[in-house]
Write a structure and sequence with these properties.
The complex is a heterodimer of chains A (183) and B (420). Chain A is an all-alpha fold. Helices cover 44% and strands 0% of the residues of chain A. In chain A, helix 7 packs across helix 8 (166-181). The longest helix of chain A has 18 residues, at 2-19. Chain B has helices at residues 2-47, 71-79, 81-86, 90-98, 112-123, 134-138, 147-174, 181-194, 196-219, 237-243, 248-251, 266-273, 289-303, 337-343, 349-352, 369-378, 390-400, 415-418; strands at 305-306, 311-312. In chain B, strand 1 and strand 2 (311-312) form a beta hairpin.
């Protein structure tokens, strides 16, 4: 009889070991001090800053390395929009390379709403998440106005400045202008 | 006689009037319905980007706007609100100021009938919302994958007991001494101790088994395949990347330039969720639609968005959303997303699996060194691309005497590439 008890105990231990394989917790790490970074990693919690985030915003007025244009000086107002529309010009030459990357970026960041051809019939419009997205051809657009809208958004559209570098924004501008011309 | 005739004439006229008016009534209902349908189409195509019927959006809510403004005023406003404001119309200027002085585009191409149709649509009572029928039924299939296993084990146990008791009975019939279960096991144990060869076999078996399980367990240390933590928000990649086909990089925008793919900051969520504040799709993961609408509201809490007034609260300190990281390489291994996403042009799914089908993300690949190396051995470099690498690619192809060069041959297996 004493052996039976031992067998039962062994079975209980075995089952509990198998049951510990829980998808909600990480597995055991060997020497965790080699696994876990000492510096704060991107997107991590950070006790140093008041908002608790490691990710910082660029200091106001600074220019990223390799940026094409100085810090954006037009204001997020109607007057700023009109001023950008009439005065701001693209620093990029029209080229195959720019258009190609513009197309790539447009497909990722714009086409969900504006549609592949800029007709305002992206998948989110078809699924009625967003409605009334205008066709580019129905609007008067300049390089400056497109760039301004990417920077600050317009109406129900939000700013896409954080997702695109300034060069990419200008490439998208170039591609949108091409979409507007193309039949 | 005369009076009867008169009466019947009267009746006839009444009946005629009735039918005529009925005809006109039906006709007018019909035209009204047509108006509403036409108005709906126009509204969705032109107005709905900034206006909703039941709540504030970029512009004011338009449901029942006819009760607040005259049709003439609305026509003038829609056709050219700038001109209307210039006439010094108090209402026009007040509403312009209330909505942050951002001008509504002019619609000079609309006819009066078009605008009336839109007004008819905004005045029509919306159809009563359907009861959320799917909400309750979903809660069922949360976790029922393990019970058949237990059932099977139980059945096996019962079967064993039955066989054992059968043997006992057989022995009783034969007149042999019958043992209890414990006594029986003792008997086997004694026989086992007496047999040297059996002991030798048992030791071998024990060693092999422990080596198998031991190494298996050791090889799984730090390997989190299938890891699926509970996130602060019940965010579904299936709804976003699968159903709505939003590109992975729309949100994980730093993957193209940076080491990390980046968890999107809440402003990226708000690009869409300013406009989408209710969950209207299929419920999932045991949540009802109402629950999921509350999940969306968590972004508003984090960013200080005032959905009723359609603007951010002033002087609000954002509260970051604490996502739990799923994929994590140990610190002693270097990995760079941009090299794989932008340079190699890999699809995210190659390593992360079918994320667009996951309501709740789990780790698909083991992320072990062997797994990395395997891919580096097998993947060929696209040598046709012009650019910085072209010359070195040609030299390497010559050196190895092959047309195709794998990542491993480019140094993708050197220790220092990832461990330094």
């Amino acid at each position: 009889m004493k052996h039976l008890n031992q067998i039962v105990v062994a079975l209980v231990i075995l089952t509990s070991l198998i049951a510990c394989n829980d998808k909600r917790t990480r597995k055991v790490q060997y020497m965790p001090d080699m696994y876990v970074a000492v510096p704060y990693e991107a997107n991590s919690v950070n006790p140093v800053f008041a908002d608790g985030m490691t990710d910082r915003q660029p200091v106001a007025g600074t220019i990223a390395r390799g940026a094409l244009t100085p810090a954006y000086q037009f204001e997020d107002t109607n007057a700023g929009y009109e001023l950008a529309k009439s005065t701001l010009e693209s620093p990029l030459e029209t080229s195959e390379e720019n258009l190609e990357n513009g197309k790539k970026m447009y497909a990722i960041y714009c086409a969900v709403c504006h549609g592949k051809k800029g007709g305002g019939q992206g998948i989110l419009v078809k699924r009625e998440k967003f409605l009334g997205v205008p066709n580019y051809k129905d609007r008067t657009l300049t390089d400056g106005s497109i760039y301004h809208v990417i920077m600050f958004g317009k109406g129900a559209m939000g700013s896409h400045a954080s997702q695109l570098s300034d060069k990419e924004r200008w490439q998208v501008v170039q591609y949108v202008q091409q979409l507007k011309i193309n039949k | 006689m005369n009076s009867v005739k008169k009466h019947s004439l009267q009746t006839r006229t009444t009946i005629l009037t009735f039918f005529v008016s009925l005809f006109f009534f039906i006709f007018s209902i019909n035209t009204f319905a047509q108006d509403v349908a036409h108005g709906k189409k126009l509204f969705k195509g032109n107005c709905a980007a900034c206006h909703k019927l039941d709540k504030k959006s970029v512009g004011p809510a338009l449901g029942g706007v006819a009760e607040r403004r005259t049709a003439e005023w609305l026509r003038a406003w829609v056709k050219d609100n700038g001109a209307l404001r210039k006439t010094g119309d108090a209402d026009a200027n007040a509403i312009f100021k209330e909505f942050g002085s951002s001008p509504m585009p002019a619609f000079p191409t609309f006819s009066d009938e078009d605008i009336d149709a839109i007004i008819a649509y905004t005045s029509a009572k919306p159809a009563a919302p359907k009861q959320a029928a799917g909400a309750v039924a979903v809660k069922e299939d949360v976790k029922n994958s393990s019970w058949p296993m237990y059932l099977l084990l139980g059945a096996l146990g019962v079967l064993l007991l039955m066989v054992f008791s059968l043997f006992q009975q057989l022995k009783g019939i034969r007149g042999e001494t019958s043992y209890s279960l414990g006594g029986y096991l003792n008997k086997i144990w004694e026989a086992f101790l007496a047999n040297g060869f059996l002991k030798f076999l048992a030791v071998i078996f024990f060693l092999l088994a422990s080596a198998f399980f031991g190494f298996g367990a050791l090889a799984n240390i730090g390997v989190d395949t299938g890891y699926q933590p509970i996130q602060e928000i019940a965010f579904s990649h299936k709804v976003h990347a699968g159903d709505n086909k939003i590109d992975c990089q729309y949100c994980h925008s730093s993957a193209k330039h940076s080491k990390t793919s980046g968890i999107p900051s809440a402003n990226v969520c708000m690009n869409c969720h300013k406009n989408i504040s209710e969950y209207t799709g299929e419920p999932f993961g045991g949540h009802s639609k109402e629950d999921l609408t509350k999940e969306i509201a968590k972004i508003y809490v984090a960013t200080g968005w005032d959905a009723d007034n359609f603007k951010y609260k002033e002087n609000f300190v954002p509260k970051p959303i604490k996502w739990t990281r799923v994929h994590n390489l140990p610190d002693f291994a270097y990995y760079n997303h941009s090299q794989h996403v932008t340079v190699a042009g890999l699809k995210c799914q190659k390593c992360h699996g079918p994320v667009e089908e996951m309501h709740e993300v789990y780790q698909f690949s083991p992320l072990t060194m062997g797994w990395c190396i395997n891919c580096h051995r097998e993947t060929e470099v696209d040598l046709t691309k012009e650019g910085y690498y072209k010359k070195i690619h040609e030299q390497l192809a010559q050196k190895y005497g092959v047309e195709k060069v794998t990542i491993a041959q480019l140094g993708g297996m050197e220790c220092g590439k990832c461990h330094y």
